[in-house]
Write a structure and sequence with these properties.
13 helices, alpha+beta, 38% helix, Arc Repressor Mutant, subunit A, Endonuclease, Chain A, four-stranded mixed beta sheet, three-stranded antiparallel beta sheet, 3 domains
């Protein structure tokens, strides 16, 4: 029994419907819903009171929306983002952020409402209801809130590099500004946790990857000058030159961390070499390293940097590039855990 109401709901909700929608909006008898969702039937029960109106397996978007349908108030429009919204790792996974498993799905619900969780859905009651967006048809918290909720759900035994990686990916992909993320983590009272506080401080300093964070760790405590992280370099006439991972403007030395995963093709490798040639043609000395070198042999990378930084004092030919971007900040930056500034808007 397929009614026009059933078709309308299914088209709007990625082929999903709640029992309330089927019986009330679509006018399908309760017994018919039960019959059609039995084993071998044309519909599938994904969660309590949530059904997939097809025989094939659900995709990741349908599973995410099913979690929101389960958590939304039965009489409310579940796509409005007013009573339930995907957040945490599941929301970040929809955005393509790595190391964020889509299940169990964290779903925000408004306080004081409570809801029993399932192995697939973890309802999170909150009194700080966020502005929501729609991602691939699924009502979701904005990336800055989803990232903070992800950090909140990571246990104390989680490896710091996982938190670093996920938060850095969110910022690097342009989903939020590091100052906004810092402010959200502060509002969520998460900066008291050392791993989260350090990851947020690194992002404020301009660090944008785990490899860069490890390089920053290696530099902390040495007598080497503090670099700019991901500063944009321009020629004197204003032409963009490059954005090295770390740059020492007074000495004209750059650190480039080149991951093998971006060099699988000949074109990618040649692009890396051309970038290095551009830097060197403007008097900048470059130390190149892979993430594994930063992780396994940081002393060798530091020795190479020390040699070039020493050779440039004084520089017979100073660099002609001009650095713009992140302020040169003193390491370590643990004091930043007490501050936060709200600024840029998140792209929807």
């Amino acid at each position: 029994m397929i009614t026009p109401g059933t078709t309308k709901v299914a088209r709007r909700q990625l082929g999903l419907a709640t029992r309330h929608q089927l019986t009330t909006t679509a006018g399908i008898p309760d017994a018919t819903v039960t019959s059609r969702t039995r084993s071998g039937g044309p519909w599938q029960r994904l969660l309590p009171r949530v059904y997939l109106l097809q025989t094939g397996p659900p995709d990741h978007r349908q599973r995410a929306l099913a979690a929101v349908l389960y958590a939304a108030e039965p009489t409310a429009d579940p796509l409005s983002g007013e009573t339930a919204a995907l957040t945490g790792a599941a929301a970040l996974s929809l955005l393509g952020i790595g190391d964020t498993p889509p299940t169990p799905a964290d779903v925000l619900i408004r306080a004081p409402r409570r809801l029993t969780g399932t192995p697939e859905v973890r309802p999170l009651t909150t009194s700080r209801w966020p502005r929501t967006i729609t991602v691939s048809g699924v009502p979701s918290a904005r990336p800055v809130r989803a990232a903070a909720d992800f950090a909140a759900r990571t246990g104390p035994d989680a490896h710091p590099d996982r938190i670093r990686s996920v938060l850095a990916q969110v910022v690097q992909a342009g989903w939020c500004h590091p100052q906004d993320l810092h402010a959200e983590l502060r509002a969520s009272r998460l900066l008291r946790r050392p791993a989260i506080r350090e990851a947020a401080a690194e992002l404020l300093a301009g660090v944008r990857s785990v490899a860069e964070a490890r390089a920053r760790d290696a530099l902390t405590g040495t007598d080497l000058p503090t670099p700019l992280w991901n500063a944009r370099l321009y020629t004197p006439d204003g032409t963009f030159l490059a954005s090295p991972d770390a740059y020492w403007p007074d000495e004209g030395v750059a650190l480039e961390i080149d991951s093998a995963e971006y060099h699988y093709t000949r074109d990618a490798w040649q692009a890396t070499l051309r970038r290095r040639l551009r830097l060197e043609s403007h008097g900048i000395l470059v130390v190149s390293a892979t993430p594994s070198m930063i992780r396994d042999t940081p002393t060798e990378v530091l020795a190479a940097l020390r040699t070039l930084l020493t050779l440039t004092t004084p520089r017979p030919t100073p660099p002609t590039a001009l650095a713009r971007g992140h302020q040169q900040l003193t390491l370590p930056m643990r004091f930043l855990g007490q501050k936060g500034v709200s600024g840029a808007e998140v792209p929807g």
